[in-house]
From TrEMBL, chain A:
Keywords on record: Cell membrane, Membrane, Transmembrane, Transmembrane helix, Transport
Protein name (record): Carbohydrate ABC transporter membrane protein 1 (CUT1 family)
Protein's UniProt keywords contain Transmembrane: yes
Organism this protein belongs to: Nonomuraea fuscirosea
Family: Belongs to the binding-protein-dependent transport system permease family.
A Pfam family: BPD_transp_1
Chief localization: membrane
Upper lineage: Bacteria, Bacillati, Actinomycetota, Actinomycetes, Streptosporangiales
Coiled-coil residues: none
Top-level division of the source organism's lineage: Bacteria
From TrEMBL, chain B:
Keywords: ATP-binding, Cell membrane, Membrane, Nucleotide-binding, Translocase, Transport
Keyword flag Membrane: yes
Gene3D superfamilies cross-referenced by the UniProt entry: 2.40.50.100, Nucleic acid-binding proteins, P-loop containing nucleotide triphosphate hydrolases
Gene Ontology MF, one: ATP hydrolysis activity
GO CC annotations on file: ATP-binding cassette (ABC) transporter complex, substrate-binding subunit-containing
CDD domains reported in the protein's UniProt record: ABC_Carb_Solutes_like (cd03259)
Record's keyword annotation contains Translocase: yes
PROSITE patterns: ABC_TRANSPORTER_1, ABC_TRANSPORTER_2
InterPro entries in UniProt: AAA+_ATPase, ABC_transporter-like_ATP-bd, ABC_transporter-like_CS, ABC_transpr_FbpC, ABC_transpr_MalK/UgpC-like, Mo/tungstate-bd_C_term_dom, NA-bd_OB-fold, OB_MalK-like
One Pfam family recorded for the sequence: OB_MalK
Native organism taxonomy: Bacteria, Bacillati, Actinomycetota, Actinomycetes, Streptosporangiales
Protein's name in the database: Carbohydrate ABC transporter ATP-binding protein (CUT1 family)
Domain ABC transporter: 4-235
TrEMBL record, chain C:
SUPFAM superfamilies listed in its UniProt record: MetI-like (SSF161098)
CDD domains: TM_PBP2
This protein's record includes keyword Transport: yes
Source organism: Nonomuraea fuscirosea
GO biological process: transmembrane transport
Boundaries of every ABC transmembrane type-1 domain copy: 65-258
Membrane listed as a keyword: yes
Protein name per Swiss-Prot or TrEMBL: Carbohydrate ABC transporter membrane protein 2 (CUT1 family)
Length: 310, 354, 272
């Protein structure tokens, strides 16, 4: 009892070691900071992380949207994955996706985006604003609308393109579905690359370009010796991001619905068709797992690059 | 108003960097005190620890007669001017000045009156409804000062208050700040890396190096009698001559010349000992004629300082500098002799003043 | 001299081709709504308002635009509030495991996409009874946008000097006063950017509402677009074009607002 009433022994050493109050800029402290972060982390955990983990699990079952397998899904191990890799439709979808990414993202958007940024680099005034505005418009309009605009543009009988080219009755979406969605996606997504390269070119010090010009470098030599080394980081960032986005893009579905005959069924559309239209959720999840893995590889590669730059 | 006392104040960052190493310091009530040192010496950490923005890992901060070591910054009754002034860009000048009063729940009218009063005192009357972004650097500084004055805190802390101003404005602000502090009489600690600023403004100053205080004193003391070679090298707009030498009986041998033992060191040196001989270029008498106890050599460089010249002599391959009044500067290549003032020359033994 | 002239000609030819490529697909959207009985062909409009009148009578068209507003605004509000709180905490306080958490967020935001997660999200919505719930969809969309939003905002807050908060703190402001009086006003441009970004994302999102809302009365414009067919099963072009125009205008206005206010440009955020 005596101990309880006597004042606690002061131990200045111990007291001195631990900070007596939080020392961040606003004095928030760890507990309050945790409370600030909690709602966001909770939503992310429930609606992003959990579904991703669930995909991994689903991929190992024979879960179906309807029927007996819907009530009592069975664990089937790697069967779905093996099914996928032995399924020719999966491989043709993968190949179409590669074409889609290379054609519309790497060649189309990067090439066109850089070209526009380069052409307009020294310009001010209405011409630049109009060109940039139109390119950005294509990017920001809702995908449901732009895909329909392209359906109208490419229509066999009354389409504007055929009227312009004098090719009535040419069925672009049926005869060249991949070409159509590649050009469509180039048109739709160029804005991001254009703006990124516009910003990157703005950061190339004018003195470097001027000294190259004083040394007598041609336009191409300036590009190769001054501009590209300077914006290499931006090019990589851009390539990886838009590859990732294009790889996961669902909007080709709005244009061709994967048809005709699966000739434009990229992986995103493939998953939708097998999982939600045919109801094979397990198999669909296995394909989703593959998509996640590919995303992961690209993202980790990208983050590595960023780190090594710092 | 209150004195500030630091007892064994220590700050160790996670990772083991000792930013402050057991500092003891007393700043009496009403003093204008400078913390001076090169970047990374811990002066800003010290100021922030007094404010409470950094928590001390050891020792104590006492303001007035209250130990505030474990007290939140807002409850320490100090006010601080930040290097970038930290004026809230979304508030006009009145609201900025009145913000501390708003925190103290002063009524809106009283806040406005107080802000107007303090603003007028600092010549801000016509700027009261502007945003900080519309003010010049000097005006922003005065708003930051007004905000601090409005708090009526026990002590003011200024972090590099002049470093964001243009060179010319800085001189004006220096005079202004010193006058203002004198009028207010509030204990004020300011941090600077500019020795001229510290000498000009402070009543007393502490010179810091890597977490330690190397000298505390009035500007005159620190300038005339630097306690060690670090302070000697750091203080003064023209660097002090610090020359290696040897004690030879009752004289010193420095750069191959014989010079007299400085008055303060007389009888305290042992024969044959290695010393560092220090004398400021301002405390040299230059002459073209040889003189007893002078350092003689050839003029290698002459730099114009405005009203005087800084002459560099090559004395047996050692550079010795002397300040020469205008009109009597030599030409490069001339023979010259620099005679140290005996009452101002210093001797350092193992880096410390004798 | 001739080289210069050729260069000019080449430049303007290229620009003309580019302008044509980006304009031609859009022409239909601005002509068809004002044309009586539009076809896929772009014709000089006869400036009729009949199509708009017809659209007004469609039972789901205008309500779906309202649904889009509800979904985008709801998501934007939640994203801004939750992302701002989390980004502030992560920017200013050394929470244990912060760096790993940020790295994980960055990874998550780029690898888990609607495409990859549509199956479990669908199931999750079924299990939690969130099918046909706009609020449920808002939560799901918020969860998807949060990692990127937190990351962008944290970047923004990292670049805001701490001295503002420290200054308020020395004057005795409490953490919540500091957040309210100093932090929120300071990062308002960042919050606005995130809000616009979230609205734009949700406004155009087709896949998630398509999967999770089967009740026509709750579906947003993106989904309703695909139901505008005539009784014969043909696309109802007068409806579609008119509806498309109305559906697009808010995005265009938002773009004009943003580009005027902030300049539609990239800053630090995107380069991370």
């Amino acid at each position: 009892m005596a101990q309880a009433t006597s004042p606690p022994e002061t131990r200045p050493e111990d007291e001195a070691q631990a900070p007596r109050y939080s020392s961040d800029a606003a004095g928030l402290g760890k507990a309050r900071a945790g409370a600030f972060a909690a709602p966001a982390l909770l939503l992310i955990a429930v609606f992003l992380v959990f579904p991703a983990l669930w995909v991994l699990y689903l991929g190992l079952t024979n879960y179906r949207l309807t029927g007996t397998a819907a009530a009592e899904p069975q664990f089937v191990g790697l069967d779905n994955l093996l099914d996928a890799v032995s399924n020719p439709t999966f491989w043709s979808s993968t190949w179409l996706t590669v074409q889609f990414v290379l054609g519309s993202a790497v060649i189309g958007q990067v090439g066109l985006g850089f070209a526009i940024a380069w052409l307009l680099r020294d310009r001010r005034g209405p011409l630049k604003r109009v060109v940039e505005g139109l390119v950005i418009l294509a990017w920001i309009l809702p995908s449901a609308i732009v895909s329909f605009l392209w359906v109208a543009l490419l229509d066999r009988d009354g389409g504007t393109l055929n009227a312009l080219l004098g090719l009535p009755g040419f069925a672009w979406l049926l005869d060249h579905p991949m070409l159509s969605i590649i050009v469509f996606n180039t048109w739709r997504g160029t804005a991001f690359s254009m703006m990124l390269y516009g910003a990157a070119l703005g950061n190339v010090p004018p003195s470097h370009l001027e000294s190259a010009r004083l040394a007598g470098a041609s336009g191409w030599q300036q590009l190769r010796d001054v501009v590209f080394p300077h914006i290499r980081g931006h090019i990589l960032t851009n390539l990886l991001l838009i590859s990732l986005w294009t790889f996961n893009d669902f909007s080709p579905f709005l244009l061709t619905a994967g048809g005709p005959d699966g000739k434009s069924e990229v992986l995103a559309v493939h998953v939708y068709k097998v999982a939600l239209q045919s109801g094979e959720l397990g198999y669909g999840a296995a394909v989703s797992t593959i998509i996640l893995l590919i995303n992961l590889v690209v993202a980790v590669f990208y983050l590595r690059l960023l780190r090594s730059k710092k | 108003m209150a004195a500030i006392e630091l007892r064994g104040l220590t700050k160790v960052y996670p990772g083991g960097v000792r930013a402050l190493d057991a500092l003891d310091l007393v700043i009496p009530d009403g003093e204008f005190f400078a913390l001076l040192g090169p970047s990374g010496c811990g002066k800003t950490t010290l100021l922030r620890t007094i404010a409470g923005l950094e928590t001390a890992t050891g020792g104590a901060v006492v303001i007035g007669d209250r130990d505030v070591t474990g007290v939140q910054p807002g409850a320490r009754d100090v006010a601080m001017v930040f290097q970038d002034y930290a004026l809230f860009p979304h508030m006009d000048v009145t609201d900025n000045i009145a913000y501390p009063l708003r925190i103290k729940k002063v009524s809106k009218n009283d806040r406005r009156d107080k802000a107007a009063e303090v603003g007028a005192r600092l010549g801000l009357e016509h700027l009261m409804d502007r945003r900080p972004g519309q003010l010049s650097g000097g005006q922003q500084q005065r708003v930051a000062l007004a905000r601090v004055m409005a708090t009526q805190a026990q002590a003011f802390l200024f972090d590099e208050p002049l470093s964001n101003l243009d060179a010319r404005l800085r001189l004006e602000a220096r005079t202004f700040l010193k006058k203002l502090q004198r009028e207010l009489g509030v204990t004020t600690v300011f941090v600077t890396h500019d020795q001229a600023e510290a000498l000009a403004m402070a009543d007393r100053m502490a010179v810091m190096e890597s977490g330690h205080i190397r000298q505390i004193g009035t500007p005159a003391e620190v300038f005339q009698r630097p306690a060690n070679t670090f302070v000697a090298g750091f203080i003064g707009s023209t660097p002090m001559n610090l020359l290696d030498g040897v004690v030879r009986g009752d004289t010193l041998e420095v750069a191959g010349c014989k010079v007299a033992v400085p008055a303060a060191a007389e009888g305290r040196l042992s024969d044959g000992g290695k010393i560092v001989y220090g004398v400021r270029p301002e405390y040299m008498t230059y002459s073209a004629e040889p003189a007893d106890g002078a350092l003689g050599g050839k003029v290698s460089i002459v730099e114009n300082l405005g009203a005087s010249h800084l002459v560099t002599l090559d004395v047996n391959d050692v550079n010795v500098q002397a300040v020469v009044p205008e009109g009597s500067e030599p030409a490069v290549g001339d023979d010259g002799y620099a005679l140290p003032r005996r009452d101002r020359a210093l001797v350092y033994l193992d880096g410390e003043l004798v | 001299m001739t080289r210069f002239v050729l260069g000019r000609i080449g430049f303007y030819t290229l620009i003309a081709v580019l302008l044509a490529f980006f304009t031609v697909p859009l022409l239909w959207l601005v002509t068809a709504p004002f044309t009586s009985d539009p076809t896929y062909e772009v014709r000089v409009p006869d400036f009729t308002w009949d199509n708009f009148a017809a659209l007004l009578e469609h039972p789901y068209a205008l309500p779906s635009l309202w649904n889009s507003v509800v979904l985008s605004a709801g998501t934007a509000v939640l994203v801004v509030i939750f992302a701002a709180l989390a980004a502030y905490a992560l920017s200013r306080v050394r929470l244990p495991g912060r760096d790993a958490l940020l790295y994980a967020l960055l990874l998550l935001s780029s690898i888990i996409t609607g495409t990859a997660a549509m199956v479990p999200l669908f199931q999750l919505a079924v299990e939690l009874n969130l099918i046909d719930s706009q609020f449920g969809l808002i939560l799901i969309l918020t969860g998807g946008l949060l990692p990127a939003a937190i990351f962008m905002l944290k970047d923004f807050m990292d670049s805001t000097p701490k001295s503002y908060e420290e200054s308020a703190r020395v004057f005795g402001a409490s953490p919540l006063q500091i957040v309210r009086d100093v932090v929120v006003p300071l990062v308002r441009p960042g919050l606005a950017t995130i809000a616009v970004w979230a609205v734009a994302n949700v406004w155009g999102n087709f896949l998630m509402p398509y999967l999770l809302l089967s009740d026509v009365e709750k579906q947003p414009a993106a989904v309703i677009t695909y139901t505008l067919y005539t009784e014969g099963g043909q696309a109802n072009l007068s409806m579609l074009s008119t509806f498309g125009l109305l559906y697009s205008i808010p995005v265009v206005l938002m773009y004009l607002f943003v580009s005027k206010k902030y300049g539609f440009r990239f800053h630090g955020g995107i380069k991370r």
